[in-house]
Automatic annotation (TrEMBL):
It holds the Pfam family Hemerythrin. Residues 12-125 form the Hemerythrin-like domain. This is Hemerythrin-like domain-containing protein. InterPro entries: Hemerythrin-like. Residues 72-95 are annotated as: Disordered.
Length: 170
């Protein structure tokens, strides 16, 4: 259940902006950990990003297509697709290697840039009330973030699971 009153597009923006801050806080901490703790923290980051991006694609980017511009929405999805590729590469490597650390730092930077683009280019221009469907998607996303019902071990599988479950609410 949503802890935030979710009635308008701006309520959704506030919710997602708070998640952006959580991601910005959590991502760098992964590199402070070792071995299993690092892998577990990386899994938490991947889960959070998979559900967050699926929710954005099924709500914000759809709204942005009509309220902002189709090009802006497409650019944000393209950034998310690039992050998915980077995460897939990281998943296949050793989380304790120097290569992982360098690639992970680049991913962190890209994720922060992406969040800032969304906040600047899309979020501020969204208006109006949310549909019951959009509110239901936020509630489902919160359940998935908590680990209830999200399928898969890889980012790609977690994203696909979240995306499909959110799509079923349409």
């Amino acid at each position: 259940m949503s802890h935030t009153e979710m009635n308008t597009a701006q309520d959704l923006v506030t919710y997602l902006t708070d998640q952006h801050q959580q991601v910005k806080d959590l991502m760098p901490k992964v590199l402070d950990l070792a071995d299993d703790q690092r892998r577990e923290a990386f899994t938490r980051v991947r889960r959070m990003l998979a559900v967050h991006e699926a929710l954005e694609q099924s709500t914000v980017h759809l709204l942005a297509t009509t309220e902002v511009s189709p090009e802006e929405a497409a650019a944000r999805v393209q950034e998310e697709t690039a992050a998915e590729s980077a995460i897939s590469e990281l998943e296949s490597g050793d989380a304790m290697s120097p290569d992982f650390e360098a690639e992970y730092r680049a991913l962190c930077s890209d994720v922060v840039d992406h969040a800032e683009h969304e906040e600047k280019e899309e979020f501020g221009q969204l208006t109006g009330d949310l549909t019951d469907q959009a509110r239901a998607k936020v509630e489902l996303a919160e359940q998935l973030q908590a680990g209830t019902g999200l399928m898969g071990e890889s980012f790609k599988d977690m994203f696909a699971s979240a995306h499909e479950q959110l799509r079923q609410l349409e």
